[in-house]
Amino acid sequence: MSFGTTQSELAALCDLNKEIPDRIKLLKGMGGAEGLSRKLNSDPKNGCMPASFEDRKKAFGENVFPEPDSKSFFELCMDALEDTTMIILCVAAVTSLVIGVVKGYGSDILSELYEGLAILSAVVIVTLVTAINEMQKELQFQELNREKEATNSIVIRGGIEKSERTNTLMVGDVVKLVTGDKIPADGIMFDGFSVRADEASLTGEAETVRKTADDNAFMYSGCLVAEGTALMYVTAVGPQSQWGIIKQHLSEREEEETPLQEKLNVVAELIGQVGLGVAIACFVVLTISWVAAGNCQYHELVEESSWKALLDFLVIAVTIVAVAVPEGLPLAVTISLAYSMKKMMNDNNLVRHLQACETMGSATMICSDKTGTLTQNKMTVVEGFMSGEHFTVNFGTSPDGVPTIDNPVDATALELFHLAATLNCTASVKELPGGKKMIVGNATECAVLKLSRSFGTFDASASMKTDFLPFSSKDKTSKCIVQTASGQSYAFITGAPERTIDKCDTVHLLNGTAAPCDQAKWLGKVQDLAKKGLRTVAIGYKKVSADEVKAGISEVAPKGFALLTIVGVKDPVRPEVPDAVLACQRAGVTVRMVTGDNIDTARFIATECHIIEAGDGSVAMEGPVFAEKSDQEIKDLVDPAKGGKLRVLARSSPSDKLRLVQILKGLGEVVAVTGDGTNDAPALKEANVGLAMNIAGTEVAKDASDIVILDDNFSSIVAAIKWGRSVFDNIQKFIQFQLTINFVALILAFFSAVWCALVPPAETEFTKSSFDTDKCTPLNAIQLLWINLIMDSMGALALATEEPDNSLLDRMPVGRTQGLISPIMWRNIAVQGTYQLIVLFGILFKGDLVFSGDDYTLKKGEVFMQSRPHYTILFNAFVWCQIFNEFNSRRLDNEPSAFRGVLKSKIFVGVIAVTIAVQYAFIEYGGEFTKTVPLTQKDWLSTVAIGSITIPIGFLTRLIAGGAAAKPKGQ
To answer: Which of 134, 381, 689, 820 is the most exposed, having the fewest neighbouring CB atoms within 10 Å of its CB?
Structure first.
């Protein structure tokens, strides 16, 4: 089958880059909707025939949006390996393996590869865990999108009206749309009644747009039918639709380094430089000693036992680098982020990008939209006037939860109100599966209809609407004529109070009588409602004659109405939002409202939410004013350093929102942005963290986001901040623990090697023929495997999985310029490291005098016989110092107790138990493999006691420092 038009011509009809008059001209050039139907081989009554589906699919495509390009598992693994620390580890692993092969060639190669394999194991574990978590979160998001897109549309095909999956729609299909429906594809409306479309998700325009078959007939995919019913021809589907084009043009954001990544890179580079420097110094010292012993002569070099000593020196140097590089750090980051990601699901946060977890912890600014995030997105009448009396709506006070009002209403006024609310509008009650009902249509009209239904059931079928003029943005009212079952006819007018009251001569009073309408008085009452942030609607009525009914509503005299009702409609603030905003403020996070609503409503809602406080000098500004200002003027309005007080941006456009985000980021702020519409996508991508709404959000907005808020609630964003700060704290705890280990092990390894080279050969057996690396490295490769890999990994698991508490919101966010290692952490590392070094050097140099060396009987010929028992004691004492210091590492502040809340962290307790069990097996049963000897009960108790002293040392350090910090200056 051939078609009389092309895909490019059809796409041009709904191209948002073209002005509407140009597109109307293009449509007329095709012969209008009638000519278009012929070109598409379709029909307004019968639609297109099923036999043409394959041809349509080939010519115009399917209504399926391609899944965003997802990375393969291999690509995810490669991404994980790009981390600076991972690169250092890979280099260290390869170097160690190469040296092991050379050194062990012709003998026991495997024993020389332990260290390299240990580092390589750490790399593999971190890479796999990171890649698996990235893949899992992406699959979760795709599943969420598939569920969201599984919708149906009413289609006329082959003369039969049926419900079909939206993704099966074809170009040329005739689609029937009613109030509340989501437009499934781009199209041209050829028939309809009182149609208005909500295009805010695509264009950012807050006002609904009138659609007629003769003028603006263009329907856009992803938008909503706010009012009326329509029939349209589908002209573009899937990637060719406007929604699909925007989705494709949203280029993948260049991944910026998160605040934590920046800090981790600094720490990794610093540690690497220090470790490399110490390793080089150690190698140089040992080589100089080797040369001084006369090993550089030719006949000495040809002896394998001589030149292999150089390899031993290189092994020592690589060991020192391996000790310096914290293998567990990448794993700690990955575990913390992955654990937080899974836990955040319980707080209604679906994390799409793993790094967004910790970035939220550094957030200093939140640019939040209003509707649905701060408010409930449920327009509701909360108070007003009926029959001349004020009333307030009470929610949830009746046993069945139906709203009630606090003043009586006479029966006549109530019946008239029912008629106006039910018939003088486009809102309607929609039947849902399971017998449930939902009110759909214009949000304000839905609120009035909902109030009518709360007064009791009303059978509108007994009355007949003979004429109707839907709400016009020009007249700001809707009008209709209704004939009741009793034969009486009424004209109703509903809309903006200033327009409605102007047409009212009287006021309907409670006793059914009428009083003259004091327009100034009632407009004053309307103003009072508006100052409370309420959208006001007035309803008037008057009896009309049969001649007026016949002539129609447009011929009814504009004056002479009676004022029946004034209602104040509000989108209530979510109950939990004010406390959530206050929590953000306590946490040092500035919250701004960016909305398309009018400035008075926005200011009032912002005040209710504590975004604006009375007398704090906060500024509310409209988008057009904002757009006229220079970047420097805006910086002065938002820069905290200059007291920037801009808190509300009302009547804002998508470009205003994007510009605000860019300026805040330029000031060094970490910015989080919320959004639900397609038009929000650029700002969501530009932000450090994009937070898309799940319920009200479009798929384009969610694709552009880092976190999807499953319940569209601002309080869930606060939970994300708390989890982000927990991630940062947990990683700091691990770094504090890890650097203490590295600090001690590095100095111990270096000075042991130097001592080995400098003391007389008689004491160290450092000769040309009997050089032994074990004499220069009291912690051998297998022991370092346990310390650097197993304890690091288990330490990461213990410290990186502690859950947050509300105290995290009682401090300022960690800024980009603030170091990852705080002064308190440096103090703790120095104090604990100094104590451990004093003890370990004492054991190393004077261990035979202190510990029961005579109690050990070693079997002749065992390899580990070369290591004296106090080397095992040194290793055991070192490990027990780390076990107890793991408790100290839980504290990043001056809280004296290291055990507060420890029992709540079951993973931490479990890791400590496993570490102790493995250490016992390591010492008692390791034998030749671990180069350890079983210790006596006395030496076990002694080494455990040495380790336990780290607890009181940490307690006193924090107690004294905390007291000094709390003491006022001058005392």
So the answer is: 820
Whole-angstrom Cα Rg for the chain: 38
Q: Phi/psi at 291 (nearest 5 deg)?
A: -65, -40
Cβ(673)–Cβ(663) below 8 Å: no
Residues forming beta bridges with residue 420, ordered by sequence position: none
Judged by DSSP in three states, 690 sits in strand
Structure tokens at 18: 């073209």
Residue-wise pLDDT for 674-706, tens only, equals 987 766 778 888 899 999 888 777 666 777 788
Tell me the residue ranges of DSSP E strands in 657-732.
Answer: 671-675, 689-693, 707-709
Q: What is the DSSP string of 39-86?
A: HTT--TTTBB-GGGHHHHHHHH--S-PPPPP---HHHHHHHHTTSHHH
Tell me: the pLDDT tens digits for 400-439? 445 667 776 778 888 899 999 999 987 877 776 666 777 8
Q: How wide is the angle at C-alpha 767 spanned by C-alphas 766 and 770, nearest 5°? A: 85
Cα-based angle 763, 766, 771 (whole degrees, multiple of 5): 135
- Tell me, what's the pLDDT at 378? 78
What is the Cβ-side half-sphere exposure of residue 963, based on CA atoms within 13 angstroms?
A: 7
User: Would the pTM of this model clear 0.70, i.e. be above it?
Assistant: no
- CATH number, span 380-570: 3.40.1110.10
Residue whose structure tokens are 């693994």: 77
Residue 889 and residue 259: Cα distance in Å, rounded?
Answer: 22
Helices (H), 465-511: 497-501
Q: How many CB atoms lie within 10 A of CB 690?
A: 30
Token pair of 552 as six digits: 């129609």
Query: Residue 713: left (phi > 0), alpha (psi -120 to 50), or beta?
Result: beta
DSSP string, 511-541: TS-EEE--HHHHHHHHHHHHHTTPEEEEEEE
What is the domain partition of the chain in residue ranges? 7-67+170-236, 380-570
Whole-angstrom CA distances from 794 to 89, 267, 702, 828 are 18, 21, 36, 21
- CATH 2.70.150.10 assigned to 7-67+170-236: yes
DSSP reduced 3-state for 674: strand
Give residue-wise pLDDT tens across range 855-866: 554 433 333 334
What positions carry a catalytic annotation? 369
Mean pLDDT is highest, among 120-134, 387-401, 581-595, 815-829, for: 581-595
Rounded-to-integer distance, Cα 291 and Cα 297, Å: 9
In DSSP terms, which residues pair with 541 in a beta bridge?
492, 562
Read off φ and ψ for residue 354, nearest 5 degrees. Answer: -55, -40
pLDDT of 886 higher than 90:
yes
